[in-house]
Amino acid sequence: MVTYLDHAATTPMRPECTEAMLPFLGPRWGNPSGGHALARDARRAVDEARDVVAACLGAEPGEVVFTGGGTEADNLAVIGAVARHGRVAVCSAVEHHAVLHPVEALGGRVVGVHGDGRVDLAALDAALDAQVGVVSLMLANNEVGTVQPLAEAAALVAERSPAAVVHTDAVQAVSWLDVATLTAPAHLVAVSAHKFGGPQGVGALVVRDGVAVEPLLRGGGQERERRSGTHNVAGIVGMAAALAATVEQRGETVERVGALRDRLADGLLAAIPGCTESGTRSTKVAGTCSLLIEGIESEALLVLLDRKGICATAASSCASGAAQPSHVLAAMGVPRALAYGSLRLSLGWTTTGAEVDHALAVIPGAVAQLRERSAVPVLR
Ligand code: PLP
User: Fold this and answer.
1) Which mean pLDDT values do the consecutive 10-residue runs of the chain (380 residues) have?
2) What backbone torsions phi and psi does residue 64 show, to the nearest 5 degrees?
3) Which atom of ligand 1 is nearest to 69's Cα?
């Protein structure tokens, strides 16, 4: 049995998505930028997908810019806004690297967070002035699941930096929150299909009417000059189908999966001495269980869990494979030694009670086994 508890990394494709994509991997292969019948067919499909994505995100169809995923959408927002207006970028210290690295590369300002992972609004206030051109604050965090006070932050930006645009990375929020309403205060909104049952390598940036960003990719002028490159028609159609299904089922999913997450978190906290939860559960999305386990290294735990059929990750998975403690936990003030023992279990639309039972049966024993090996006593 394989228990998949890594939905924050990527999610299984929804059947509605696969079914919608198949014709575009077969007979409907046209390039939507052309003029003949096959091209027109593809363009209609992209236009219909755009309408669906816009409706689900509370945007107008003309405000949706299709991209090659969440990273590109975030880069387009931050780099595109700065390039357009020549002003300073600001973001929170717990942003995904797709926001944090561009902000740092542009010499921007990074604002601290409280111990629960929510942005320090007083520090944000201090970072805002007339020089600021874009402020990026994610809606939900990928490591801990913390939901940010976007409306309050956007109100501060409007008051202190009225020329600035607000960007929100809603990549981890779509499965769990009413993004159409919650992202309304933002001028720019990034989403990624593979985090909500769609295919990998496709996403979107909502660019509100009247807001301008310089394109990252120039060429054929697709997406009204905002993102050149032939459309990923199958991916875009799949994303729309996955998003529609996600939004339609979101209420039921949040309730069902939230209860499973609570059972998993409470069970592990009770069964593992020296284990605490990072963040505050009431301000986290329903799918994330993020733990700090004393006296172990998460890399070793993940290997043991993998052998026993449990797919999980540390707080953050690093593409380089280097064991770096998470920048999110560090920003939240988690001591370095404890951050090395982080475990992120992220549930999603396919998660079952049997998977939670499996995790509860395996993880406490695996932690005990590692502690025996290193013989580090853990006292309660
Ligand atoms: N933003 C957040 C919050 C994410 O969790 C991720 C993916 O892990 C991204 C951006 C990047 O999205 P993508 O994998 O589509 O490039």
Assistant:
1) 96 98 98 96 98 98 98 98 94 98 98 98 98 98 98 98 97 98 98 98 98 97 97 98 98 98 98 97 97 96 97 69 80 95 97 98 98 68
2) -90, 120
3) 15
Q: Which residues are catalytic?
A: 318
Residue 95 alpha carbon, nearest atom of ligand 1? 3
Can you list the domains of the chain with their CATH numbers? 3-9+250-374 (3.90.1150.10), 15-246 (3.40.640.10)
Q: What are phi and psi of 112, to 5 degrees?
A: -75, 170
Which of 172, 191, 346 most suits a substitution to test ligand 1, by most atoms within 8 Å of the C-beta?
A: 172
Q: What is d(CA 351, CA 347) in angstroms, rounded to the nearest whole number?
A: 6
> Which ranges constitute the DSSP H helices of 8-149?
15-25, 37-57, 70-85, 97-105, 121-127
Residues 6+ apart with CB under 8 A from 114: 120, 332
Q: Vertex 35, ends 66 and 55: CA angle to 5°?
A: 30
